[in-house]
User: Which sequence fits this backbone?
């Protein structure tokens, strides 16, 4: 088996290194190993960021470095990299310490200082007054989610980084994820406009004017085309999700597609949704006694941006713009929402359905 390595992306000398791809391909292991080796070489501590404190509380925290204590081949990298000084890792209260296991005492004897410290985005307010001058490597694992993002999550992440970095410029940041959701607030907030077009193995580099900021984004290639375990996920039903597990394809839900032909005269109303740099057209269609909404990608500009009804999460002063379709304030908004409430919305393809689903998730969290 081959596993992901950081060698290629590190050559980009980026401040942010964003890596996504198939599950269990070694992304997290590679960064944990990098952070440990950097610490042992005098390069500073490792910060591990997750959304929730529960993500590294108890057993989850205790097992964070298990793969370094015993690799798939049985090698103890903790012992190897510390030249026998330590052989395990001790976890306590959101901090990880190099340690030795004492057989007589039947417990771990930790070093006096931690080499890694955990941060939860939900607890940012409790840590912002503390200083962390020794942290030089940051790992934000599973920054993509199929579920809901925290309200203003990108701002929480930036505030957490600000707490860690302060006035320094020697911190390298890694953001890792499985390919569970192509639409993510981090992509738009960071101006990563090419994510949806990337192919496996690609590395895109983004620069921001004369600021010196460099962000490298890698869609990790499949290193093991035919994994032995793939046989367990070979079901044909709903394989759009299973492909993410076996080959790192973007995970998509199955959404209802329109199977009925209609003409322009059958459209009684049209509105638009702008989300994640995508423009969607929503047609209200009436066929005989049936009425439904069909959502598809709009490939041309909106003809009348002063009159057409447009849902856009950014703020606009025009009266025809609205932000949250789930919070209607007039009759037309309530009528449009009814189609979603009654499951009468159909999509051009699963990607469009996923995009609308992510917009609706944003609406649920919006203030």
Assistant:
């Amino acid at each position: 088996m081959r596993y992901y390595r950081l060698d290629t992306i590190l050559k980009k000398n980026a401040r942010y290194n964003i890596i996504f791809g198939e599950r269990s391909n070694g992304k997290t292991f590679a960064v944990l190993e990098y952070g440990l080796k950097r610490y042992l070489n005098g390069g500073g501590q490792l910060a591990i960021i997750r959304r929730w404190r529960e993500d590294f509380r108890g057993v989850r925290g205790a097992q964070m470095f298990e793969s370094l204590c015993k690799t798939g081949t049985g090698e103890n990298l903790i012992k190897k990299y510390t030249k026998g000084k330590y052989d395990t890792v001790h976890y306590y209260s959101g901090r990880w310490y190099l340690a030795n296991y004492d057989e007589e005492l039947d417990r771990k004897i930790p070093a006096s200082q931690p080499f890694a410290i955990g941060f939860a985005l939900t607890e940012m307010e409790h840590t912002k007054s503390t200083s962390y001058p020794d942290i030089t490597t940051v790992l934000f694992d599973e920054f993509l989610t199929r579920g809901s993002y925290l309200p203003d999550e990108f701002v929480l992440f930036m505030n957490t980084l600000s707490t860690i970095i302060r006035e320094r410029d020697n911190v390298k940041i890694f953001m890792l994820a499985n390919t569970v959701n192509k639409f993510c607030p981090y992509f738009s907030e960071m101006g990563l406009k090419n994510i949806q077009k990337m192919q496996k193995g690609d590395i895109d580099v983004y620069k921001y004017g004369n600021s010196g900021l460099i962000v490298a984004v890698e869609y990790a290639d499949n290193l093991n085309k035919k994994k032995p375990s793939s046989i367990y996920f070979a079901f044909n039903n709903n394989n759009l999700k299973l492909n993410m597990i076996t080959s790192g394809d973007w995970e998509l839900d199955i959404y209802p597609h329109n199977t009925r032909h209609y003409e322009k005269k059958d459209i009684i109303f049209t509105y638009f949704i702008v989300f994640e740099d995508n423009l969607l057209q929503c047609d209200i269609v009436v066929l005989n006694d049936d009425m439904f909404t069909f959502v598809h990608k709009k490939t041309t500009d909106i003809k009348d941006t002063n009159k057409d009804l447009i849902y856009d999460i950014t703020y606009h002063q025009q009266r025809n713009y609205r932000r949250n379709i789930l919070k209607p304030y007039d009759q037309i908004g309530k009528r449009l929402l009814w189609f979603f409430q009654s499951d009468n919305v159909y999509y051009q393809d699963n990607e469009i359905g996923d995009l609308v689903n992510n917009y609706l998730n944003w609406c649920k969290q919006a203030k």
Observations:
- The longest strand covers residues 278-287.
- Residues 282 and 295 are 4 Å apart (CA to CA).
- The chain has eleven helices and 16 strands.
